[in-house]
Amino acid sequence: MTVEATPQRRSRWPIVLAAILTVILVLVGIAVIVAFTWFDVSLGDGVGNRSDTPASASEVHRQYKLGVGDLKLDLSRVSTDRAINVEAHVGIGDLRVIVPQSASIDARVKVGSIDALGRHDDGRNARVQMGSSNLHLEARVGAGHIEVVGAS
Fold it and tell me: Which domain range does residue 115 map to?
């Protein structure tokens, strides 16, 4: 008696499922890259929550950046005797800045809202500009919220 080997028929479902999963992962990756580019997110700028409170003008950095998360910056103790320009940027998240009442502000959010010294704007490409002072704050958020409050 001879036994003939019959080829086993393999199911194609694992291959089809793997192909569909691969396409989905590629599309999600592309969407993340496009979103990070449009919202100007750099993970090299960090992720998480940060807070900084410079005690004098000499301790103020020119730029404060965060990729994703919440950034809190307290400039209330900084003297406005000389010109100081500060840029604060969060890709995705919230930016809260406390400034002297006389500070000038240029705040922009690509998608989200701004509450700055009693002024409000929200939606896409929201912007609030106000004041003329030695302390100038340029606040930018890709997606999220900017809050600028005056020191009490």
Answer: 43-150
